[in-house]
Amino acid sequence: MALLGKKKSDTCSTGCMITKWVLCLLLLIVAIAALIGVYETHVIVGTDPARFAIQFGSTSGSLSIIAFVMASVACMKHMICCMSPCEVCSK
User: Fold this and answer.
1) Which residues are within 8 A (CB) of 67 and not within 5 positions of it... i.e. 6 or more apart?
2) Which candidate, 58, 8, 52, 13, places its Cα nearest to that of 38?
3) To the nearest 10°, the Cα dihedral for 63, 67, 69, 73?
4) What is d(CA 12, CA 15) in angstroms, rounded to the nearest whole number?
5) pLDDT at residue 9, as a whole number
6) How far is the C-alpha of 72 from the C-alpha of 63, rounded, in Å?
7) Which of 2, 19, 55, 56 is most buried, judged by most C-beta within 10 A?
8) CB of 58 within 8 A of CB of 41?
9) Has residue 82 got a pLDDT over 80?
10) Do residues 46 and 53 touch, judged by C-beta distance below 8 A?
11) Which residues 6+ apart lie within 8 Å of 81 measured at CB?
């Protein structure tokens, strides 16, 4: 118990929380766009909508999977950051 010290807060300021959640939302949109890119590069739809093929092994397909994984990891890491107080606000 510190009598003269500043009390540590468990929550961030309003501006900090808004910034964190806006960034988290943008990262989620990027992850969804990357997932759409994975679908677009791997699924080939022909003239008949009932027939489609799945293609693996292309450079663009591999890069789209890498982009999706990186975007998903960034989104999850930032979501963890949103749930905990930041270092700046808790001091």
Assistant:
1) 34, 37
2) 58
3) 160
4) 8
5) 55
6) 14
7) 19
8) yes
9) yes
10) yes
11) 20
Structure tokens given for 46? 């022909």
Strands 52-54 and 43-45: antiparallel
- SS3 (DSSP) at 91: coil
Encode pLDDT of 18-67 as tens digits. Answer: 888 899 999 999 999 999 999 999 888 777 767 778 888 889 889 999 99
Amino acid present at 57: G
Neighbours of 60 (CB within 10 A): 12
Distance CA 59, CA 61 (A): 5
User: Any idea how long the chain is?
Assistant: 91
The answer to whether residue 7 scores a pLDDT higher than 90 is no
The number of C-alpha atoms within 13 Å of 29 and in the hemisphere containing its C-beta is: 6
CA-CA distances (angstroms) from residue 22 to 16, 40, 68, 73, 75?
Answer: 10, 27, 20, 17, 12
Phi and psi dihedrals of 53, rounded to 5? Answer: -125, 155
